């Protein structure tokens, strides 16, 4: 039977009863009496002690632990909080042949986010210099789409100060939050490593900073191959969570060729998995293809903009939870979508008229929210 923690009011009543029982001839419960004030203070201290014991009990088991105690429990299964990572990419500046851009040169984005050149570059005859850059501050704030304007921090002879991002600046991720670490820790406790099972590949991929979802498709490119699909919902929010790069294998795999080596996010994940994967497996890391699902909803033609935004977010959450780029018979349940919409205020009387059957997950395709038509 669970222990019922007494409320502060109950503790005050109990202390008052004890005072009255101990001093039957004294009226110690008057509003401003010393005994009443002392009893109230004692009850408050007791309440704090109960609260501390509650907190200790929660940290004593993995399922309710938080903060440093969650990290300690996770470390028992070799699961560690993912640290923030620095965004990297390429910026092109118009430059005269032979112009030199040194390692460490600062490059600034239009919103004052600062990057540094990560390798010395000498401009060729093409009239431009393509420089690799790394964000100075780790986190998603450094991720920058192609076409963004960048400015050279210092004047360099032969190099124009304004450039453009030509290789998406990505792979920046914030430090992992407790809920994500808890999910990975729980997976580790529930799924004992099996030397290369599907769950192992998923765990290895999700250990990479920024990766929030992952799936494993055995023999996806033939016997002996393993295809890992991954999503970076937070780090690549500007791209709806899809990895930015090219699909392929780790550059550390001796069997790889320039044609099948991954790049960008896929390369980061592939190189991380390569350390743990079985030596015989050829592991490809791929970005799933977005498969938009359009919805028609009747009964909400007069719904406000706020309500419609909440409906879209609710459907997207269900698709993110149940959608998978696998042909394993799994589906996205329309009943779950109905329940998610019904939980939103001001949606009474709605009916989802399209689609009419549960969308089926297919290999390589990840269900995402398409257009919503209200009628």
Automatic annotation (TrEMBL):
Occurrences of domain Baseplate protein J-like barrel (ranges): 91-163
Occurrences of domain Baseplate J-like C-terminal (ranges): 293-375
Baseplate J-like central domain segment(s): 193-287
InterPro entries given in the database record: Barrel_Baseplate_J-like, Baseplate_J-like_C, Baseplate_J_M, Phage_Baseplate_Assmbl_Protein
PANTHER family reported for this sequence: PHAGE-LIKE ELEMENT PBSX PROTEIN XKDT (PTHR37829), PROTEIN JAYE-RELATED (PTHR37829:SF3)
Family recorded in the similarity comment: Belongs to the Mu gp47/PBSX XkdT family.
UniProt name for this protein: Phage baseplate protein
Organism: Pseudomonas helleri
């Amino acid at each position: 039977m669970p222990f019922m923690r007494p409320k502060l009011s109950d503790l005050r009543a109990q202390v008052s009863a004890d005072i009255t029982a101990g001093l039957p001839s004294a009226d110690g419960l008057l509003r401003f009496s010393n005994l009443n004030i002392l009893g109230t203070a004692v009850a408050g201290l007791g309440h704090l002690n109960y609260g501390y014991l509650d907190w200790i009990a929660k940290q004593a088991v993995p399922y309710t632990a938080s903060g440093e105690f969650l990290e300690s429990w996770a470390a028992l299964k070799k699961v560690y909080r993912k640290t923030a990572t620095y965004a990297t990419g390429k910026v092109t500046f118009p430059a005269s042949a032979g112009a030199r851009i040194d390692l460490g040169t600062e490059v600034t984005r239009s919103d004052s986010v600062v990057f540094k050149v990560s390798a010395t570059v000498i401009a060729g005859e093409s009239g431009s210099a393509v420089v690799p850059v790394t964000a100075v501050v780790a986190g998603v704030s450094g991720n920058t789409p192609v076409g963004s304007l960048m400015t050279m921090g210092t004047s360099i002879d032969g190099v124009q100060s304004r450039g453009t991002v030509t290789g998406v600046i990505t792979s920046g991720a914030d430090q992992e939050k407790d809920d994500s670490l808890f999910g990975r820790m729980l997976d580790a406790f529930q799924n004992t490593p099996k030397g290369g099972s599907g769950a192992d590949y998923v765990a290895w991929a999700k250990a990479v900073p920024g990766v929030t979802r992952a799936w494993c498709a055995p023999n996806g490119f033939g016997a002996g191959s393993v295809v890992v699909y991954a999503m970076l919902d937070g780090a690549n929010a500007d791209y709806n969570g899809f990895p930015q790069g090219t699909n392929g294998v780790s550059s550390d795999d001796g069997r790889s060729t320039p044609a099948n080596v991954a790049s960008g996010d896929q390369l980061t994940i592939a190189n991380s998995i390569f350390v743990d994967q079985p030596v015989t497996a050829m592991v490809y890391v791929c970005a799933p293809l977005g498969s938009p699902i359009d919805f028609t909803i009747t009964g909400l033609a007069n719904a406000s903009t706020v309500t419609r935004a909440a409906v879209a977010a609710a459907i997207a959450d269900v698709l993110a939870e149940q959608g998978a780029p696998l042909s394993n018979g799994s589906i996205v349940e329309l009943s779950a979508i109905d329940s998610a919409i019904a939980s939103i205020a001001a949606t009474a009387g709605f009916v989802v008229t399209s689609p009419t059957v549960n969308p089926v997950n297919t290999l390589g395709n990840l269900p995402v929210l398409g257009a919503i038509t209200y009628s």
